[in-house]
Amino acid sequence: MRSRSELRSVDEHRRVVAGLITARPAVSVAIADALGLVLAEDVTAPLSLPGFDNSAMDGYAVLTEDIATAGADTPVRLPVAEDIPAGRTDIPTLAPGTAHRIMTGAPLPTGATTIVPVESTDGGVDTVTIRESKRPGQHIRRAGEDVTAGTTVLQAGQVVTPAALGLAAALGLRELVVIPRQRVLVVSTGTELVTAGTPLQPGQIYESNGAMLAAAVRDAGGEVVASPMTGDDVDAFRQTLHDHVGNADLILTTGGVSAGAYEVVKDALGQGGESTVEFVKVAMQPGMPQGAGSVDGTPAVTLPGNPVSALVSFEVFVRPALRAAMGLSDVERPRRTATLTEDLTSPRGKRQFRRGVFDPADDTVTGYGPPASHHLRWLASANCLLELDEDTAEVAAGSRVQVWDLR
Ligand code: AMP
Ligand code: MG
Known about the structure:
Belongs to the MoeA family. The chain is an alpha/beta fold.
């Protein structure tokens, strides 16, 4: 057993895991599939927006001079010569002394210099009575005033948001070049594990890490290749890896890395060969037993089996590395400081991550549930991780502490 001074620090293990996971080459994907991904190239507008001069209001296209005297008590009457709904593809010409009824987004007739909104008229169909004059160009959207063809409208490194996607669609683009999602294989180990739907025998439990980590991977922006489970049998574990690894960019395992017997992940990957996984103890609570390296060239991170340890380890080590490899700039959870509402203890020499409830209204944080690593219920309703550093053994109510905001 190594002494505490030989434990790997949290920061060192974060660096090791971050170094394993690298970005995939850029790919072109359908714009709908680009949501949340990072652009690998600038996007240049192939056309202008608006593409043509059009009306900003439902109303009447007229010549400014023809309605120069129009007012509440001095109405001007004009015959309505054309009806121009949005989508009309020919562009009629407006003759002086006439009006065209026009809808929002419809092309401006040649010769028209202003739009009178329907609200300033009687809404007539054959003739229209206009009770307000307008300046030239009023209520007209000019071609190119939003986007000029040839300009850079989205930049490499930018996350594709719904609005960015909308702009790409408006420009008639069908694909965007992005940094693709990391593909993760999530393998749960344990002979005691059973799938929901199967009645439990004494000593068995329902598998939960697979569902939880697969969700965490997706939540981080990654893609789940598969989330199989396997018993504590080295050959079965190896076969499961072999069957599912496919194009995975990362293998994530849970369980089988502690100090007991039947530690299947350690037994299968700790003996060299095609594995470079190094099993270490990290100065952290929960989540001390960890491993990282590669299996047959695929990066692998082996997390402990206790559900709280597994998810906290994912948050601390894997999530930031995955997000960085997808080119995202906000790879970390937001860190805040908050006032602790109670006295807490923490093991000296280890960084402790307690589940907490952060209350933004009064800027406080309260530890939530026991620090032990099997308490899923508390984890499920916590909204932050409360981080107590390696040098802290006791912290008093009223102290300012750091939290990782999970909201
Ligand atoms: P291990 O790290 O394999 O020694 O497992 C530590 C604890 O976590 C044991 O109580 C396991 O039953 C539990 N555990 C391991 N893997 C899972 C899983 N996939 N789902 C739920 N509990 C698990
Ligand atoms: Mg196990």
